[in-house]
Specification:
Helices cover 45% and strands 12% of the residues. By secondary structure, the protein is of the alpha+beta class. The chain folds into two domains: 52 residues, no CATH class; 133 residues, no CATH class. It has a five-stranded antiparallel β-sheet with strand order 1-2-3-4-5. The termini are far apart. It binds zinc ion (ZN). Zinc ion binds next to loops.
Length: 212
Amino acid sequence: MTELHQRAQILKQHLSGLPHSKIDFASSLIKQLERKGQLSEKQWFWVDKLADMAQGIPDFTQPEPEKITVGALTGLIAMFNKAAEKLKYPAIALQLPDGNEVRLSRAGKESKNSGYVYVKVPASVGYAGKVDPDGQYFPKDVKEPLKTELATLLKKMSRHPAETAAEYGKLTGRCCFCSLPLTDPKSTAVGYGKVCAHRYGLPWGGKNSSCN
Ligand SMILES: [Zn+2]
């Protein structure tokens, strides 16, 4: 018995574990196999997939929707709102795993989208969605894997802003908030500038230092 025939055997034993809508399809595959002794490549693909499904094993090749949902990015919105007290157009640069830059920028007071944060990936898709004032992310025309990578990065920045900002500074040598090079040794050590830290409400270690 081949490995695939064993999979068909498993499927047959666990048929009742399938959703109702899939049982007829699975039964017909099994009947066809018993009749002909063989199936097409596509049918074997389904036998394999349905065997997992029948046993309640999740399909790991499909991203689960709840893993893409970022939840409310309230930390990110709070940071931008704080910065907007002093800055007209607060913006933050972050980096994706492939090295492409993500630009987050808050719509100005005169904009009809005031309070929204735009998400852009200039090197690939350009505009990649917005975060509303309640912290909900609405991706726009973004496909996988970028969709999940962006969601992960936004969530990280919202929940661990100091660490995420510092990571960017250490990778690029620039402050993620003002994009200026980090030249002050203390800023280099922290990973972002002191003035920006104050503006965005983040902790900063030392004293007597200017932003960069
Ligand atoms: Zn800065």
